[in-house]
Amino acid sequence: MSNQEKFSEELLIAEETVKQQEIVLFNDEVNTFDHVIETLIAVCDHTPVQAEQCSLIVHYKGKCTVKTGEYQDLKPRCSKLLEAGLSAEIV
Description:
three-stranded antiparallel sheet, alpha+beta, elongated
């Protein structure tokens, strides 16, 4: 195996190990469906259909992953969800 092939293989492995995290939204029995939907659209870039589906999953299952990505992207989004009165955390 040449040095170029070995370097390319190591680079691909390094790219695959980027840690993906999730924002999990929890049911709180306080916020309205409309508020949750509007907040998910504004903060997580959901479509109205995605936001509605997530709000229903949270309501019936107790929690739902609403955004996946790198921590640096998720941290400000999660903070905005918390500021809006929603219960969320990054896992």
